[in-house]
Amino acid sequence: MLGAAAGLTEVRTDDLKKLLRLAHRGEPTYPLTALELARLGLQHCAPPLLATLRGLGEHAVKALLVAVIAERLPSNKENAIRRELRSQ
Question: What is the pTM of this model?
Fold first, then answer.
C-alpha cells in the first residue's frame, strides 16, 4: 500500500460511487472513521479512504468523491486528451 501519497487510486470506482450514494442519503457520520466505513460495508478499502478523507466534513467528502469519480469517467479522459491536443 502506498498510503496517503496514492490518494484514492487504490479504491475501486464502484466503492467510491457507493460511498457517494450513501453520503447523498445522509448515511455516514463525519468525520469518517474505520468503524463508520465498516458499518457502511466499506471496511475492505478503509485504509486508503481514511488516508485521504480522514478529518473532512460532509461537503468536502462529497466534493472530493465527485471530482475523483469524474476524473475516472472515460468520456472526461477523452475530452481532456482532445483539449491537450488542441492546445499544442
Answer: 0.81
